[in-house]
């Protein structure tokens, strides 16, 4: 466990070397926009939700601990009357919960300006562990469940004038290699490898999703970004023994920032109007674009990840209004056949 802790601290220190710190854009346009923030009751997610609320945004806190979220909203409302927030239950460890959340969210709002996938997991001590959906736990919570949520909410996002999706990732994605034949790290498992790969797939999918959305007129205005929040003191070590937790937090404070500062990049990417002019698919660290893992530039590997993910989900990631099938994915052939059949029927009529 000590070795794992040292590797985590080393990774945090290296983040300072890789990504020199910049400040977020000032005076970003937030007022009146609808933000959905997952994992918003602690750490970076809490600070992100609070900052957006205090800037005039309507924030929907998506979390497991709804009582804590409601208490936070009440506390903030007392200090800052007039803020507009809401709470909905979401457990990324359950795909059924993701689907139910998406349906409930659509009843609360007719559009989403920004979906922030902040919630994540890094279990530093457990052996290979699966969810009730039979996915490796990091793989589900960090990658495939958030992606399912994105897929389910694309139409709601598309109703906003300049919608964004922000995937909160990690520098750890650079310290692993993709392995689609063992993408849940079952054969050679370690917490660091499982976590890193889940974040790598997240950054790869950020790029691939953006490329495919851009080819669909109804979704082309949606921007997708991935962010590394920086060297932040979080509750990542909470699963370790108390002595190690104490050492982590005290050593970490020497080289890491607090959660408020750590939320800078997320808030910057979620709100800076200048990013509307970008194509999207970028990876940010410390409020500036940064170079991701080389695998993110591998077009064929991204396509393979897309296909494997769609097969695993059993549904297209991007629906089309006409057919409900995948856009520019491996379902294209079936879509074309269906369109040809419809044309033939129209000609016969």
Characteristics:
NAD(P)-bd_dom_sf; single chain; globular; 8-stranded mixed sheet; Retinol dehydrogenase 11; about 45% helix; oxidoreductase; about 350 residues; alpha/beta; SDR_fam
Total number of strands: 8
Structural class comes to alpha/beta
Q: Which runs of at least 5 residues are low in confidence (pLDDT < 50)? A: 1-7, 17-21, 322-340, 342-349
Task: Determine the CATH superfamily.
Answer: NAD(P)-binding Rossmann-like Domain
Number of helices: 11
The number of domains is 1
Give the termini distance in whole angstroms.
Answer: 71 Å
The name of the CATH topology is: Rossmann fold
Task: Please state roughly what percent of the residues sit in beta strands, choosing from under 5%, 5-15%, 15-25%, 25-35%, 35-45% or over 45%.
Answer: 5-15%
Q: According to CATH, what is the class?
A: Alpha Beta
Protein name: Retinol dehydrogenase 11
GO molecular function: oxidoreductase activity
Keywords: Oxidoreductase
InterPro entries: NAD(P)-bd_dom_sf (IPR036291), SDR_fam (IPR002347)
């Amino acid at each position: 466990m000590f070795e794992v802790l040292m590797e985590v601290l080393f990774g945090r220190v290296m983040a300072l070397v890789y990504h020199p710190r910049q400040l977020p854009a000032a005076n970003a346009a937030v007022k009146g926009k609808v933000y959905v923030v997952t994992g918003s009751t602690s750490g970076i997610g809490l600070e992100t939700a609070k900052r957006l609320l205090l800037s005039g945004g309507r924030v929907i806190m998506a979390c497991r601990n709804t009582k804590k979220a409601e208490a936070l909203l009440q506390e903030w409302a007392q200090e800052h009357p007039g803020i507009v927030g809401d709470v909905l239950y979401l457990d990324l460890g359950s795909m059924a919960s993701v689907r139910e959340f998406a349906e409930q969210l659509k009843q609360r709002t007719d559009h989403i300006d920004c979906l922030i996938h902040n919630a994540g997991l890094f279990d530093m001590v457990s052996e290979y562990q699966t969810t009730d959906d039979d996915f490796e736990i990091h793989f589900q919570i960090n990658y495939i469940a958030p992606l399912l949520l994105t897929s389910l909410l694309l139409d709601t996002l598309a109703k906003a004038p300049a919608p964004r999706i922000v995937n909160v990732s990690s520098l750890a994605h650079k310290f692993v290699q993709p392995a689609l034949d063992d993408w849940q790290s079952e054969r050679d498992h370690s917490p660091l490898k499982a976590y890193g790969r889940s974040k790598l797939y997240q950054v790869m999918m950020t790029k691939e999703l953006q490329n495919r959305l851009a080819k669909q007129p109804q979704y082309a205005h949606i921007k997708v970004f991935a962010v590394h929040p920086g060297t932040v003191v979080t509750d990542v070590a909470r699963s370790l023994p108390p002595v190690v937790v104490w050492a982590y937090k005290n050593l970490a404070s020497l080289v890491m920032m607090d959660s408020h500062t750590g939320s800078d990049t997320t808030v910057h990417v979620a709100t800076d109007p200048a990013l509307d002019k970008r194509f999207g698919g970028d990876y940010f660290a410390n409020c500036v674009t940064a170079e991701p893992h080389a695998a993110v530039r591998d077009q064929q590997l991204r396509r393979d990840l897309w296909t494997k993910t769609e097969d695993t989900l059993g549904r297209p990631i991007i629906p089309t209004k006409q057919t409900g099938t995948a856009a520019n994915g491996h379902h294209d052939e079936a879509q074309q056949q269906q369109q040809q059949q419809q044309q033939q029927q129209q000609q016969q009529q």
